[in-house]
Amino acid sequence: MGGGYGFQPGAGKPGRRRPGRDKNGSDKNGSDKNGSLLRPDVKVTFAAERADAGIDDILAEVNRELVGLAVVKRRIEEIAALLLVDRARRRFGLTAPRPNLHMCFTGAPGTGKTTVALRMAQLLHRLGYIETPQLVHAMRDDLVGEYIGQTAPKTKRVLERAKGGVLFIDEAYYLYRGNDSKDYGQEAIEILLQVMENDRDKLVVILAGYKDRMDMFFESNPGMRSRLAHHLDFASYDIGELTAIGTLMLDRTNYYLSPEAEVVLRAEVSRMMSEPHFANARTVRNELELARLRHAHRIASDAHREWTRDELMRLEPADVLAGEPVPGQSPS
Ligand SMILES: Nc1ncnc2c1ncn2[C@@H]1O[C@H](COP(=O)(O)OP(=O)(O)OP(=O)(O)O)[C@@H](O)[C@H]1O
Ligand SMILES: [Mg+2]
C-alpha cells in the first residue's frame, strides 16, 4: 500500500519537537532529540504530550472562536486524543498503524464546516499526520471535465496540489449525477476512491455538504462512505447562538451593539432564519457588515458633529435595521 514517498506520522517537524520535554521525556530518561524510542520505564502525561505536539492553542482557538458546536468540538477532541495516544505509543515503539483520517462534514451553509476544516488541517499537521497544514478547496468543476479525457488529468492535478495536506471537497455530491450516463463525475469519484485508499498517508480528504444530499450520495457510492472514518454533523444555530456569534464577530473588530441594537439584530436574524437563502453565521456576518456600512455613513455624514471613541464602536438600531438603505446603495 502506498508509494515510497509517504509521510511518517509523528516523524517530527522542524522546530516543533518537544519544546518543553517534561521530566519523563527528557533525553537522559530514555529518548534523544532525534526521536529515538522512549525507554519502557518512562512515563508520559497527556498534558505534556499535548503541549509537546503544540495542539493546545489550536484546540483553545476552536473553543474561543466558535460559538456552540458542542458535538463537533467533542469529536475534534476525540480525534486529537486518538492521534495523541498513537503518537505516544509510537514513541515507545508500539505499533500504531496510521488510522484512516478521511472525514465528512455535513451541515447547512454557514455552520462552520470550512472554518473547522482549516483548524483540522492545522491539528493534523501539528500531530504529524500531514506534511503541511495546507487545505486545498475543490468543487465539482475543479475535478470533472466536460469532455472525454479531461477528468482524469483534472482530478489528478487537484490531488497533486493537495498532496501532503487536506483536500476539502465542497458539495461533494455534485460529483455524482446518477441519471446522466455521459457524466464524467463517476470517473473523478473512482480516482478519489483509489487515492483515498492507497495514498492515505499522503493526504486527508474531507467531503462537505448538506447532510441529506450527502446521505443520498453515499447510497449510490457506498465505497465512498466506507472510506470515511469520521462524520461530523454541524447543526444549524439557534437564535441565541447566532446573536452570540454576531457579538463575538463585532468584539473581534472593536465594535459592539447597543442593547437596543441587539434586540433589533435578534429580531432581524430571527426573521431571516426562515428565508430560503439563510446561511447561519455567514448571514450574521453579512448583516453586520451592512450595519458597519450604515454606521459609518451615519457618523461620517454629520460632518461637523463631534463623535467619541465609544460612538465609533457602538452600533445603534438604525445601523442594524434593514429597509433603511444607505443612500447611494441599492436596497437588497
Ligand atoms: N460557531 C461559530 N462561531 C463563530 N463564528 C462562526 C461559527 N460558525 C461559523 N462562523 C463564521 O461564519 C462564517 C461562515 O463559516 P464557514 O465558511 O466555516 O461555514 P460553512 O459551513 O463552510 O458554509 P458553506 O457550507 O456555505 O461553505 C465564517 O466567517 C465563520 O468564521
Ligand atoms: Mg464552506
CATH architecture of the domain at 98-234: 3-Layer(aba) Sandwich
- What is the string of helix and strand elements? HHHEHEHHEHEHHEHEHHHEH
Give me the side-by-side strand order of the main sheet.
Answer: 2-3-4-1-5
Name the beta content range: 5-15%
What is the multimeric organization of the chains shown? single chain
- Secondary structure category: alpha/beta
Each distinct ligand: adenosine-5'-triphosphate, magnesium ion
Task: Report the top-level CATH class of the domain at 98-234.
Answer: Alpha Beta
CATH homologous superfamily title of the domain at 98-234: P-loop containing nucleotide triphosphate hydrolases
Q: Quote the average pLDDT.
A: 87
Major sheet details:
5 strands, parallel
What's the alpha carbon Rg, rounded to whole Å?
24 Å
Give unreliable regions as ranges: 1-8, 10-33
Q: Write down how many β-strands occur, each being a DSSP E stretch of 2 or more residues.
A: 7
Give a short overview.
A 5-stranded parallel beta sheet has the order 2-3-4-1-5, with helices on both faces. The protein is built from 14 helices and 7 strands.
